[in-house]
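**Fold tokens**
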Amino acid sequence: MSQATFGQKPTYASTESFDISVSEDQRAFTLTFSDMQTVVDAGKSSAPVATRTFSLVLPLESGYEAVQIAFAVSGFALASQGADGYAVLSVNGQTSVVHFPPETDQEFVQELVFEAAPTVECRISLFLLAEREFANSLAAATVSATSIDAEVLPRPV
């Protein structure tokens, strides 16, 4: 079983608009966001493409063992006809992409199981993209993330 644990505080964060809660055993954490959202709306903005990014580096004590960590981004996506969106989660270069096609109106949970040789940190990046057809006056899209949960998984022997 992996003995990896998370540090209590990030060594880097691209914004201060989040809270982090690390479990007592330091094998899980939850990041919650207050404003991680991107929106394109023909009636409210002239831009047909909008993005939002978040990056965080959290120390990881893994000793000499490989690690396996389950990540889950929770959020909401809305895309009308003529619009779509994406959520991209990257942890130390391992990436998960979810596409929200036209006619999407749903909550989502995007998962990524990160596996690596012993490492000293988790470099977490979240990228949200909303886009619409420029000429479509009714097209709109919203992609938002409310939280990222992570948990160190037991490694098979």
